[in-house]
Structures are given as structure tokens and as C-alpha cells.
Amino acid sequence: MKYAIGIDIGGTITKIGLVSEDGKCINKTSFRTKELNKFSDYVIKLNKSIDKISLKNIDISGIGIGAPNASKNGTIETPANLNWKGKLNLVEKLKEYINSPIFLSNDANCAAVGEMMYGNAKSLNDFIVITLGTGLGSGIVSNGMLVEGHDGFAAELGHYSLKNMGRYTGLDVQGGLEAYVSATGIKRTIMYMLSKYMNDSIFRDISFNNLHGEDITKAAEKNDFIAIKAYEYTGKILGEALSNFVSFSQPEAIILTGGLVHSGKWILEPTKKSFENNLLPFYRGKVKILTSGLEDKDSAILGSAALVWKNI
Amino acid sequence: MKYAIGIDIGGTITKIGLVSEDGKCINKTSFRTKELNKFSDYVIKLNKSIDKISLKNIDISGIGIGAPNASKNGTIETPANLNWKGKLNLVEKLKEYINSPIFLSNDANCAAVGEMMYGNAKSLNDFIVITLGTGLGSGIVSNGMLVEGHDGFAAELGHYSLKNMGRYTGLDVQGGLEAYVSATGIKRTIMYMLSKYMNDSIFRDISFNNLHGEDITKAAEKNDFIAIKAYEYTGKILGEALSNFVSFSQPEAIILTGGLVHSGKWILEPTKKSFENNLLPFYRGKVKILTSGLEDKDSAILGSAALVWKNI
């Protein structure tokens, strides 16, 4: 059996795992990303964490890293959610400590590779993964290969622009998809629905900062008008956007993953309905909307480790 | 030197050429596609035309065909602009007469492969070709390979939907890009500008059916207000759409080709301006807008022939 290290660099938590080629995470650790003020200290901590989870008698085939704003050249560029600014030479710095091959890609690209190796895209050559977390990330696979683009910044579909929509994203882009479709997006939509309707709702007593995704699902299950409207609105926009993505790469499946998908039918039903309504005739019945096959299984670590098997 | 046959099946004309591997069309013929009422007769005519242009002592490596609505499986499916309906088994039928390998792809995909072999995409692994003819076609290359999708219907960006726009396409899709950006689209925009403004214009004396692309360029050069407004409007929409396409596949270049591009600066300047204005910060300065390197050089025949070199 071969083994790889999978690392997921998130704005809050950095996760490190030792993963076998058949997709089992057999040892893992994590630390708070923002603990380290200097990037060079972060790299040292990362190296120590890799040592900590490595096991005697187990050789590592390589290290796979998923991170926001990762380029094709081993760098992380001006990440909005990390402490450090500018162009961070992550792979180069880590190579000062480590001899194994190191691969870096966008975190949503890692999610796509993870689905291809271990999840619901095992037999697929053409698919798209949409991660619905704090923002909206995406990984696109065409001809069995990641669509990374000229220098690694392809598949930024959270910034895909809905020209008729007015919300601003974190990058100050007006009408960016993730301003509507993400954990943050649906919270904004709850606010919008509170502005639009006069109906009673549990959300009239909850502030924006105290509002969590699970609350919206619970409220919808109790038939809360505002919660149901928010899911319908979010699903309608997501379905329209996904139908446009199909005219780009004609995937066999679109796999949805991340916190917002935990609401199940509340988000999936309006999304599928809107998707089918907007799909062109010659695509109908050919594109499946699926959820991740990796939920609650160290998916981010598995996806990063899968980058190693895809590249060596 | 190796040789291939390149065939371009258009709604009006079918072109057949004998092409050398270095990109010279050394013999060619054509006939009117709608001459043949029965599809089986069309295939016979196609085979005779291939015989007609073939030369003694020259072996053919293969036959490449570009056609609208071509699938990955050698069929043309419910083509809007051809006489015959349903699923047409073009490759299978042609194989009854011909022994060489036969490759079929969407006509805009052939344009992309042609640019890669002989045009302005020679050194590029990630680019998009947009063909601005009667409709809007597109060919996408990622990782040096055509993005064809699950069964060949990827890259249908003419049907990419502008949700805030109201025009109907030939497929009755509201807001489809080609309803705005194509030879037909800009004619519709001339009508729209005549409805919107009261200014004098040469177009107040020309009917829709008598209006041709060259007239719009000539009028713009004479400072016709309606013509200039029409180019500005078309370029603005095209630039916005192209900037969205970048967040999908991050091409190194987008190559524009087809009749509408013959107007030169009139369409290119507003397109580039709108493109740069809408591009996300991390893409700026990284994506070139180019015109075809194959104009007036039997480009459709060359593109179809290039399909052979890409596949054998």
C-alpha cells in the first residue's frame, strides 16, 4: 500500500492527514491557521505537523496541499482569508524541509480530485464540483483532467457574475454568484426576505452575526415562511447558474458539497427544478445533480492527498 | 508530406479540401448543402466530391469533418440549419464508401483545432475561439485538449444565457448570447437602436432582410450614430460575457473570428474595453483578445483537416 500526506489550508483551521492509496485517513492532526503570524513560522509548524503524524516503516509518496488562491507554480497569491499577504512561495519553502514531491492546488480543485478518486465521480471524465462553504468554490474536470487554466486560476465560479444582480462579493465584484449562493449568501438572503416580506419569522429575533446555516434548515422544517423563501431564491439562482455552466463544459454530473448542502431537500429541490427549467433541450436528461460521496469522511484531507495520486 | 481531407458542412455551402500537414489547401471543391433533399444522397455527393479533389500518388491520412450539432459519436443531432432532421449517422454512412479514418466535431471546435495547428494559438494550451457568424459558436481548449463534454455538446456559448436580457434565440431561449453577439445579433441591435433613438441614419431606409454586416461598418466609418451605438452595445455585451468565461477556464487568449470581426476596431475596441472593465483583479493583464490567424485562408477546411492531425 502507498501513502500520501494530505493538507488542507483553511482560513481558520489547517488539517494534516496521512492517507492510504485506498482512501483511508489513518492518522491526523490540525492547528489554527492564524496562530502563526509569520508565514515562515507557519511553514515550520506545517513541517512539524507532518513529522508528528508520519509513522515508522511507512514511506510517503508525496504531499498534496489544497489552499485558497493557489497558483500552478506552487505559490498562494494574495489570499483574502489568510493572515499573510502578497505571493507566498509555499512549495519552495516547504521543500527546504521535505524531500518528497509536493503538489499544490486550489482547495475546490482538490475536492474535485477527491471525488474522482474516492467519491461520486469515480467513473466520470467530465464533471464539476461546487463547494458551498463561506464562499462558493469550484473544481472543473474535462477529459479526465482538472481545468486549471493558464496559471491555475480557472474555475473561480464564485465570481461568475450575475449581471442583473446587485450584491457585492468580498472582492467587491457586483453580482458575483457567491454573494447569493454560499453559507454567507443565504444569510444575506434571509436579511433580504425580512426586508421584502412582513411575515412572522424566527429570524426577526436573530442578528446576522448570530445566524447559522442549521437555524435556517430547522426553521424551514417548522414551516418558517422566510426560511422557505430563502431556500427557493437561492436554489433558483444556483440552478440558473449551473445550467449556464453546462453550456461551457457539458459535465455528466455536477456534485454539490459543503455546509449549505447539509440542508438537503431544502436547497436541492429548488436547485434541481430551476436547473431543469433552464437547461437547453439538447442537454436535458443528460446531466445529474449529485451530492458529495465524501461527506464527513475527512474529505478535505482526502482530496489533497488525491492530488498526489493524480500527479505521480 | 502527409495529407488529409477537410470538410466543412455549413447550412448553405459544403466545402471539401485536400490539405497538406503544413497547412496548405492544394485542391478544393464545394456544393450547395440544400441541393440534396435526402441525407443518403448528400453522403453520396460528399463521397464523389472527395474523389474529385483527391490526387494520384497522394495517400490520405484521414478525413476531418466540421458540422453544426456534431456529437462525439459520429452523428449530427437535430441540426437547426440543415434540411434533414433527427439523428444523422454521418460517419457510419460515409464509412460505407471510404476506408480512411473519419473524425467529426462541432464546426467551432474545428476552428479551435485549426488555430492550434496553423493560426494564432500555436503555442497555447488554454484558449477559447469564438466564431461570430450567423450565430455564435465556440471551441474551448484546456490542457491542450478540446473541451467536448460528456457527448460532444460542450462549448455552446452562443446559448449562454444573459438573464437580464429579453431577446429570443433560434432555439427560443430567452437572453441567449448569440441573439446579441453575431451577424444576426447586430442586425437586431440596429433595429433596437432605431427604436430607441430619433437620430438620422442610413438604416432608416434599409429593411432588416436587406441589411448586411458590411453596411454597418461602412456607416460607422461615415459616423452614423445608429451604427456606432450598435457596435458599442454589441461590444459591451461580448466583453462582459468573455470576462465571465475567463472565470471558467482561464484561457491565455480568446480568439475572435467570423464575419462580425471584419468590422475591425468597431467591434474590437468596445469589446476589449468592456472585457478589461469586467475582468477580476487576478486575471487582469493575463488574457489576450486576438483575432484569427486563419482569416481568408480556407480556414474552415483547414480546421476540419486539423482534426485529423490532432486525432491520429
List the helices and strands and how they pair.
Two copies of one chain form a homodimer.
Chain A: E1 3-9, E2 13-20, E3 25-32, H1 39-53, E4 60-67, E5 76-77, E6 87-88, H2 90-95, E7 102-106, H3 107-118, E8 127-132, E9 136-142, E10 145-146, H4 183-196, H5 213-221, H6 225-249, E11 253-257, H7 265-278, E12 288-291, H8 299-311
Parallel strand pairs in A: 1-4, 4-7, 8-11, 11-12
Antiparallel strand pairs in A: 1-2, 2-3, 5-6, 8-9, 9-10
Structural class of chain A: alpha/beta
Portion in helices of chain A: 25-40%
Reported for the largest beta sheet of chain A, the result is: 5 strands, mixed
Q: State the CATH class of the largest domain in chain A.
A: Alpha Beta
Low-confidence stretches of chain A: none
How far from one another are the termini of chain A? 15 Å
String of helices and strands of chain A:
EEEHEEEHEHEEEHHHEHEH
**Number of separate domains of chain A:** 2
Categorize the overall geometry of chain A: globular
What is the CATH third-level topology name of the largest domain in chain A? Answer: Nucleotidyltransferase, domain 5
Strand content of chain A: 15-25%
User: Mean pLDDT of chain A, as a whole number?
Assistant: 94
Q: How many beta-strand elements of chain A? A: 12
